[in-house]
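Blackboard transcription, Thursday session:
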Amino acid sequence: EPEVTQTPSHQVTQMGQEVILRCVPISNHLYFYWYRQILGQKVEFLVSFYNNEISEKSEIFDDQFSVERPDGSNFTLKIRSTKLEDSAMYFCASSGLGSGANVLTFGAGSRLTVL
Amino acid sequence: EDKVVQSPLSLVVHEGDTVTLNCSYEVTNFRSLLWYKQEKKAPTFLFMLTSSGIEKKSGRLSSILDKKELFSILNITATQTGDSAIYLCAVGGSNTGKLIFGQGTTLQVKP
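(Written on the board underneath:)
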């Protein structure tokens, strides 16, 4: 069964460092997303991406965050200068078109720990 | 502000019991309600509901949506230890695929 793959599974970084989280969405999906889940809290929407541009972003997704689809398969989330409160599990997801657009397939997540 | 509220937050049952998980929502431009199961990895898709009163079933799991009262339930019959997980309810309120999640219900099924 097709799946969304994420790397790394766990990253530890120092405050102020840049991190890049990588995702390979399902190959025939056209919508890509990043969500995050701070320990003990809800899964929160960060950003959606379609046709090589951001289609929607949340208030959390400020200038410290950026997304990119550098080639035909990868979808990345960059945090420029990490803060302690960026520590969370980051989920990448993808979906198809039409009625399937809301059925997101999630990756296993990248746990980011900022020290 | 859009919100999704699940109850109970946690539940402990024994194998063979039937459980009902609840999800209520207040979302502008409702498009769909989804249930996901989250174990120690990716949330996995269970159901998508768009119409009121039509039950979706998959084995021992079933779900129904009430768009008038703005809630959904997820039923699990004859529970098994493998059903132990966090069950997430999420509502889609835009055409960009953005989902608004509830807090989740942690279900523990004891042998």
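Lecturer's comment: The mean pLDDT of chain A is 93.
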